[in-house]
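Input (Alpha-galactosidase):
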Amino acid sequence: MAKATVNYVKACRLTVILYVLFTAVVVTARVLPLHPYVDGKAKPIVNLYDTSKYGILQLGNGLAKTPQMGWNSWNYFRCDINENVIKETADALINTGLARLGYNYVNIDDCWAEPERDSEGKMVPDAEAFPSGMKALADYVHSKGLKIGIYSDAGLYTCQVRPGSLRHEYDDAALFASWDIDYLKYDNCFNMGIDPKERYPPMRDALNSTGRIIFYSLCEWGVNDPALWAGKIGNSWRTTDDIVDTWESMTAIADINDKWAAYAGPGGWNDPDMLEVGNGGMTYQEYRAHFSIWALMKAPLLIGCEVRNMTAETYEILTNEEVIAVNQDPLGIQGRKAHTDGPDDCYQIWAGPLSGQRLVVALWNRCSEPATITAKWGAIGLESSASYSVRDLWKHEFVSQNSVTSFSAQVEPHGCEMYVLAPVTAASST
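Output:
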């Protein structure tokens, strides 16, 4: 009888422990921002879009639930920057409506600092270019409802030989936080040959120690395959070398970034570098393809052109709300290259799941002649008998209300047509 009582008590204790653990898991599940796959409401269509290599919001700072959007100074201005350029760019983001569409980071790249630290070992803004200081500039940008970003390096110097933050991580992070900085791009020059997995975590820890939530963008150039390890360190990580404003550079970078699709998701994104749209080195069709594929790949959409004086074509591309919505879709699955055909595989189909059981599909003609490209359901992971409406995101119209098996489109040389497929229910198809 005594033994039975003891066993009963043990059983009760075990029940209580299991209840507490279960309750803790449930409470945690309620408050943690989980990848939508976890809730059981949305499943991958096929393993073509597998995300099993993605760790859910690993960094845990609450940022980057969707890819970051904004503007960066480097692609257009290089080192020719000053506080007036930054202020006027912030104004332009507001006045053109770009900010309303989500472009809310105003990021200052290299060359903002004096060549040497001051007598106290602190970084100092270039006195000629930024006479009011970074805190005043941040206040101005914040007054517009925007966020401000800055640049440093996980090396002794930046790429333009300004002071780097290697071995100064905590001092520099505290300085950035005191200026109310919202975003840090952290480069890879003059790195002393130290493993990036050793150089990048100290700045993560330093940023977290400030108490200010700062977006952490690793710019490691993909040298050591950061998709494999950067999820617990940063909110985005460069998978490639610097982009150049050419068709050859853009396409090569897209292909490299595509290899790491399974590693991206809410909280941490593959970064194939900033947008070149509007800088003059590519045609309208090429820029439209650039923007389409970056959006489909859930790449950061960081404008790299002069937004104070955009052409109508540049404005049209950057403000396409339907394409932006693909990039910012809450499901957060990076689209990828699903099928290739034609000469040198230049007829390409890129695709990716969206929320609501929808699918984004891009027909990309990387040949130099017009081509008809066909997306067959099997190639993009759909059941051949399923019916889908097809909406053209560049024409802003439905091209079909009930497609089965496949759909086709004529695509200009170096052009890219982009569509969203939505399932047609039995009720709506009758």
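Residues 336-423 form a domain with the Immunoglobulin-like fold (CATH 2.60.40.1180).
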